[in-house]
Design brief:
By secondary structure, the chain is mostly beta strands. The protein is 13% helix and 38% strand. The strands form nine sheets. A six-stranded antiparallel sheet has the order 27-28-29-30-31-32, with no helix packed on it. It has a five-stranded antiparallel sheet with strand order 1-8-7-6-5.
């Protein structure tokens, strides 16, 4: 009997270990992965912002440890905790799915598929004639976009008063917003679900003009400086799509289903960042997995690729352009798998150099920062890093001149001519740091003050003396269990003619407004759902490639 029991126990253990025992989870793990995980880990689990989760990497790893990571997150990285959404059985089922994943065939981007998803919604010219000026604000450049990620919406806000003007469904996890700098009444958004939407900001309620489904998983968006063309970037199916910026009619597709990566392998690549430049008639797009940047010339018939810059690094993501002398000549593109910022020259259509940000840094500049330093007499650039609490600063020779410690990994660093600071978030720095924004003096290159938003109080402190410079009362937000939430704050964006800086409180459904010159708290914009990316049209009018 004992032997029989032992055999049965071993057999049961083998079933559990092999993943055949599903527990009580009813989760559709493939669909959940696409919604919650694919953005960071890739459609074929190949990694990116997140780790490589293919079976060749994780099949022999301890399933219990992997399950615990899913539930509790990974401190110091972009991996959040899912224990509020997943049960233990859900996490176990997800691990089994990942360790036994067979891969999936990636589709090819086609013009027919994109054109089938194009849908005009309103008569643009009728609106143009009826509303020559903005109805809801003094000037359409006063408007700020806010992406409400989990609500699948974009909200329009008056950037001079903080009043919410309108909200619109715009696809799952709305990711990026841009405006037409030549005609700033027209604005565009793209969702992670591949939906591009065009809005007319002069109309009452900022009405939609057109929509187009460019793919099933998308990210980047850019408008040519002449106002004629819009380009979107796809993760699935991989590639870029050039559209008419006045109608969203697709004009050309650039499939990336078969490209050579930095290791010499041929495969599909996601397209991440899209960048326009005032330096020439160019739009560039980054092949995330291929390690290339392609440059197209939209002034030529057929919109050809006129530059192919390979071997920049692994996992290309976001980036920004230089300001100052020869504005927009250089693209600073983040390689998160190689821990470098590649410097691409639009003039020579070549890679100038690579700026090393540090071991396992994973640079993520967001909108980036470029400014003139009077002490050095040079134009400087900066990025935050996802895995390291540091801001990396380089000079106009592309040499790193300072690594400034912060509280934790960040996603965005921003500035403007109206503030003396670089505003760097720590949103990936864990709950003890994700409620802080570090303000770095642009001239001394020293940490000047720290904004901290607690559950009941907010402070601006001097990091050397620890003196509280300003303080204010913070409305407490509680979760479903009645526990006070520590605000998770990110993405500083200038607004109100440079007087304000807006900071999203992602998990508290509001945006904090601060004085740009001092960091002093002004007020809150409430009534939002997971506000993530804020875009001030007036500010972005002067920023190349933004």
């Amino acid at each position: 009997m004992r032997l029989n029991k032992l055999v049965m126990s071993v057999a049961a253990l083998a079933v559990v270990s092999s993943g055949l025992f599903a527990g009580t989870s009813n989760m559709d793990v493939e669909k959940v992965f696409e919604k919650e995980c694919q953005g960071c880990h890739g459609p074929n689990h190949e990694g990116g912002v997140g780790s490589d989760l293919r079976p060749g990497v994780i099949a022999k790893k301890n399933a219990y440890t992997l399950s615990e990571t899913i539930l509790n997150g990974a401190p110091g990285t972009a991996m959040p905790e899912f224990k509020e959404k997943f049960s233990k059985d859900d996490a176990d089922k997800m691990v089994d799915y990942l360790q036994h994943f067979k891969g999936k065939k990636m589709g090819v981007l086609t013009m027919d598929a994109v054109k089938a998803g194009w849908k005009p919604l309103n008569d643009r010219m009728a609106f143009f004639k009826k509303y020559p000026h903005a109805v809801d604000v003094k000037k359409n450049t006063d408007i700020c976009f806010v992406t409400e990620r989990d609500a699948e919406r974009v909200a329009f806000v008056d950037g001079t008063s903080g009043k919410i003007l309108s909200k619109h469904p715009a696809g799952f996890a709305v990711h990026v917003t841009v405006t037409n700098k030549r005609q700033p009444r027209y604005a565009y958004s793209i969702s992670r679900s591949g939906l591009v939407t065009m809005f007319d900001l002069n109309t009452p309620g900022q009405q939609k003009i057109a929509q187009i489904q460019v793919g099933s998983d998308s990210r980047g968006l850019a408008v040519s400086p002449d106002g004629k063309y819009l380009m979107a970037g796809n993760y699935v199916p991989g590639g870029a799509i050039l559209m008419d910026a006045m109608t969203l009619e697709p004009l050309k597709v650039y499939p990336t289903s078969s490209v050579i990566d930095i290791d010499g392998n041929i495969g599909s690549s996601r397209v991440a960042g899209i960048f326009d430049t005032p330096y020439g008639p160019y739009i560039a797009f980054a092949l995330k997995d291929g390690g290339h940047v392609y440059i197209i010339d939209y002034s030529k018939p057929g919109f050809p690729i006129v530059g192919d810059i390979p071997n920049i690094g692994k996992i290309l993501h976001d980036g920004f352009l230089n300001e100052g002398k020869e504005i927009g000549r250089y693209l600073f593109i983040a390689s998160q798998g190689s821990d470098v910022i590649g410097v691409v020259d639009f003039k020579t259509k070549s890679l100038v150099t690579k700026i090393y940000t540090g071991p396992s840094a994973k640079p993520h500049p967001g909108q980036g920062s470029s400014w003139y330093n009077e002490h050095l007499g040079q134009q400087l650039g900066a990025t935050v890093n996802m895995n390291l609490g540091q801001v990396t600063i380089w000079d106009d020779n592309f040499d790193v001149i300072r690594q400034i410690p912060t509280g934790g990994g960040g996603l965005f660093i921003g500035t403007s001519e109206h503030t003396p600071f670089l505003w760097a978030d720590n949103v990936l720095g864990g709950s003890s740091n994700w409620n802080k924004v570090h303000l770095i003096n642009k001239q001394t290159l020293e940490l000047d003050r720290i904004i901290t938003v607690g559950t009941t109080k907010g402070t601006v402190t001097d990091p050397v003396t620890h003196k509280v410079l300003y303080k204010w009362n913070v409305p407490t937000v509680k979760n479903a269990k009645g526990k006070a939430i520590t605000p998770r704050i990110l993405h500083a964006e200038p607004a109100n003619h440079g007087h304000w800086t807006m900071i999203s409180e992602w998990n508290c459904g509001r945006i904090g407004i601060y004085e740009a010159k001092t960091g002093k708290f002004v007020k809150y914009i409430k009534g939002l759902t997971t506000p993530t990316f804020t875009y001030s049209i007036e500010h972005r009018q002067t920023i190349p490639g933004a």
